[in-house]
Amino acid sequence: MRVLRGSDKLDAMRRVLFRLVVTVMLLAALPSPAGAVFGGRPVDPGDPLARSVAAVLYRAADGAHLCTAVVLARRLVITAAHCTEGSRDDMRVIFSVGLRDVPLDRLRGVAAVRRPEPTAQSKGSYAYNNPDDIALVLLDAPAPSDALPARLADATAGAVRIAGYGAASELRDGGNRGPRQLGFGQGLRTAEASLSSKGAVLVAAQPGKAGMCTGDSGGPAFVAARDGMSVVGLLIGVSAPRGAADVCRGTAWFTSVPRWAGWIRTAARELGTPLP
Question: Which residues have C-beta within 8 Å of that of residue 53, sequence separation ≥ 6?
């Protein structure tokens, strides 16, 4: 066992305080309002889904951003690649159904990020439907002991359960200043959806009561499993007809986890976190 000397203890305290300050700054800098799965319901802390999903906060050149991720192992989460664009020093993974007053022991920093090489299928795609938009994030410490790693699903379509921390709605601004978000609950929400295959990606129509939006990027589409959650897709983005008043009531696009299963297992092993 290593014994901390006075200077080591001070350095350790500084690292903890830095983590706290950076996280608070990122939370404060999030656009307000910004929200959660629209039309969904709050996730109860006792729900197994709550143990398999985490929030990702990161800072890029245009400010702070919120995403969603799925736990794959005690030190590994998976999310959309565009959620890892900032410096990993400013990234934080939060294991909590709510994003207010989060205890320090529910926060983790990022030790490494792994993204795949572009594939031919991504050529000509847009940011919202790029089939290669996937990344593994290695945590700087194990996730909380109650975290429940999800399995990689074999299915590619069908009924799913979606979840995320993102916006409840994005309404187009009549002043032509871009979308404005509504309903910033800073909490994890869930709903049901139906996925279908479309080329190298998965899609879900969400013109009605529930769906995913900004901040849900990297969020899961789970299929039912006896021993926990099985993830079949991760949200890339949402597209809507030009005339739609609500940007999020259109088509949700997901990376296909079965398509990337081989790469995920290989990269996880190379990161020192082999999957079962």
Answer: 43, 68, 69, 70, 71, 163, 164, 188, 219, 220
CA distances (Å), origin 228, targets 41, 48, 156, 202: 20, 7, 18, 22
Kindly tell me the number of DSSP H helices and DSSP E strands found in the chain: 3, 17
Q: Is the distance from CB of 173 to CB of 23 less than 8 angstroms?
A: no
Integer Cα distance of 265 and 201 in angstroms: 19
* Residue-level pLDDT, tens digit, the chain, 276 residues: 333 344 444 444 444 444 444 454 445 444 433 345 888 899 999 999 999 999 999 887 777 888 999 999 999 999 999 999 888 888 999 999 998 889 999 999 999 999 999 999 999 999 999 999 999 999 999 999 999 999 999 877 789 999 999 887 888 775 555 677 766 567 899 999 999 999 999 999 998 778 998 889 999 999 977 777 899 999 999 998 877 888 888 999 999 999 999 999 999 999 999 998
Q: Under a CB-based contact definition with an 8 Å cutoff, are residues 258 and 152 in contact?
A: yes
Residue 199: both structure tokens together: 């080329």
Element (H, E) at 196: strand 189-198
Q: Are 155 and 191 in contact (CB under 8 A)?
A: no
* The overall pTM is greater than 0.90: no
